[in-house]
Amino acid sequence: MSQIQNALQNIIAQATQSYKDVATKDPVVQSSDDKTARGEHLDHILRAQQKEKKELWNKLHSLENKRINDQANAVFNSKADGISSSARNQLHALMFEHREINSLVAAEIDKIDKMECGSDDILEIEFRDDLDRQIKQYKSLIEFAQQQLDATVSALREDTIVLSECEKMYSALKVAERKAAQETYFQLYPEELRKEQEIWESQYKKDTHDLIDLLEEFYPPHTVEVSGESRKTCEFKTLLEDLLNQSVDSPDDPYIKLVPGTYWPPYVQTLVKGGIVKYHPTDSTLIRVHDFAH
Questions:
Q1: For burial by CB atoms within 10 Å, which of 102, 157, 181, 276 has the most?
Q2: What does the DSSP assignment read for the chain?
Q3: How far apart are CA 159 and CA 172, in angstroms?
Q4: For the ranges 31-40, 79-88, 208-217, which has the lowest average pLDDT?
Q5: Exposed, middle or buried, 65 (CB in 10 Å: 0-12/13-18/19+)?
Q6: pLDDT tens-digit map of 258-270
Q7: Residue 249, Cβ neighbours under 10 Å: how many?
Q8: What does the record list as GO biological process (predicted)?
Q9: pLDDT for 49-106, tens place per residue?
Q10: Is the pTM of this model over 0.85?
Q11: Burial, 243: exposed, middle or buried (Cβ in 10 Å; 0-12, 13-18, 19+)?
């Protein structure tokens, strides 16, 4: 290191001496007018500049000497003699490794910048695969839900059948209970039942005779014209008997036909207005007894 310092100092010293020689031997420039030397004022300025240059060069020379002496630009200088050779080798290895890592990182970054993006076909294929996978999952879920629904419907049907059978059994038990209660009542109270039946039969006959007398008094027989000249007698009680008989004998078809000349129309209108009979919904020639049970 001392030889390099001495050589550097010699080079700087030679450059400084050369500049001094050039600066001090600056030729006198003659005037273009009278071929005489320039004025003293210009010479004074030039001398001041030369002096300033000399001071600057001296200052630069002193700073360079100080830097060389301090060896500020050296990695290992004479002041670091305490560092062992193994530490120096390790430092060199780390510096080399650092440079290699930086080189690798730069190369990878360059590859990333130059890396081409995937084509649209690849993206479409990946999207279709993802879509197919989701569709399969949804189909599996739908199949599972359908199986659960079928099982629930099957269980509901079985429960409905069991409930229907229970209702039938309950109805049969109620009928059997009523029959058993009647039989028990007949067995325990035969005389009371016979007397009660006689009372009801007597009351029925009495009511029937009273009704006939009422109809004959207030609704006497009336003649009805048949085919223009022939006449036929229509009784109000006959109309009621036909209606009641048709209702009892044919409960599914309780209507009777209003054949012209059979029933007197005012008697029919009386029963309709009283709410006792009603017309067929679509045929005004048919009437029936009103179903008071509903």
A1: 276
A2: -HHHHHHHHHHHHHHHHHHHHHHHTPPPPBPTTTS-BPPHHHHHHHHHHHHHHHHHHHHHHHHHHHHHHHTTT-SS-GGGTTS-HHHHHHHHHHHHHHHHHHHHHHHHHHHHHHPPPPPHHHHHHHHHHHHHHHHHHHHHHHHHHHHHHHHHHHHHHHHHHHHHHHHHHHHHHHHHHHHHHHHHHHHH-HHHHHHHHHHHHHHHHHHHHHHHHHHHHHS--EEEEETTTEEEEE-HHHHHHHHHHHHHH-TTS--EE--TTTS-HHHHHHHHHTTSEEE-SS-TTEEEE--TT-
A3: 20
A4: 31-40
A5: middle
A6: 888 788 888 888 8
A7: 9
A8: kinetochore assembly; mitotic sister chromatid segregation
A9: 788 888 888 877 777 777 777 654 454 444 444 556 777 788 888 888 888 888 888 8
A10: no
A11: buried
